[in-house]
Amino acid sequence: MSAVDYGDFTAGSDGTCTLDADVVAAAEMADADHGDVAWSSGVAAVQAVQADAIVKASLNAEDFGDFTAGTDGTCTLDADVVAPAEMADADHGDISWSSGVASVDASTITAAKLADAVQDMLVNSFTAVAVPGPDGKTNVVTVTAKDMGGNTLAAYSLFECWIGDTAYSVPAAVAGEFTVTTGVEVQEITDKAHYLVMTDSNGNAVLTIEDDAGRTNALHIVSGGGKVTATTLLWDTP
After folding, report:
1. Share of the chain above pLDDT 90, in %
2. 59 CA to centre of own chain
3. How confident is the model at residue 230 (pLDDT cuts 50, 70, 90)?
4. pLDDT tens digit string along 66-75?
């Protein structure tokens, strides 16, 4: 067969025949299922897409309305596709939907979950570890900020402290010096006795306190919420 147009089809030089594009009118299509498209009375209807009807590699990289196809054949659902009214009335985990309205489940927010969320943001207490010096006249005290979970709070934190002759007593000056060696002395309220101190960015402050050998007194620290703790300081005789 020669390579020529024979009306409704064209013959190729390789002996194949190709039906011309405008040969079959819509009305001439048989009422039947033609795979992904069904014909009825000359009208085509796209079938419910079968799992293998459209392969992802065949999609152009463009916006298809509710989803966008990528050049790698992946599809991404657009952010504004699902309206609240389209959400199924059901429990969706921590949130339940009913008539397009979302409500947080009562069991979602618990005291434990709130504690977990804020525990690393709030100062709950300060610990103090005192190490007496070998001369019997010096105590080096490391003060550390703690969060609600008892972990070190790595943040600048302010505390009030004073030396008392006994635990939970009024301020009483030491015989030597009271020095903030790590952190910042914000305010001296009473010389050698009562101070406001800010920790460093790691939540630590170091106080060097000098007093007479053989004494016993206490360092008081005001924690978050006004809680006061007292740490005994021993001044050993060398």
Report:
1. 33
2. 36
3. confident
4. 777 776 767 7
Nearest by Cα to 144 from 156, 127, 163: 127
Same domain assignment for residues 94 and 136: no
Q: SS3 for the chain, per residue?
A: CCCCECCCEEECCCCCEEECCCCCCHHHCCCEECCCEEEECCEEEECCCCCCCCCHHHCCCCECCCEEECCCCCEEECCCCCCHHHCCCEECCCEEEECCEEEECCCCCCHHHHHHHHCCCCCCEEEEEEEECCCCCEEEEEEEEECCCCCECCCCCEEEEEEECCCCCCECCCCCCEEEEECEEEEEEECCCEEEEECCCCCEEEEEEECCCCCEEEEEEECHHHCEEEEEEECCCC
pLDDT in tens, 160-174: 999 999 999 999 999
- Structural domain of residue 154, as residue ranges? 125-234
- Is 60 buried (19+), middle (13-18) or exposed (0-12) by CB count in 10 A? exposed
Per-residue pLDDT, 131: 92
pLDDT value at position 215? 86
How many structural domains compose the chain?
Answer: 3
Q: Is the pTM of this model over 0.85?
A: no
C-alpha torsion 172→176→180→185, nearest 10 = 50
Q: What is the CATH number of the domain that holds 228?
A: 2.60.40.10
Q: How confident is the model at residue 219 (pLDDT cuts 50, 70, 90)?
A: very high
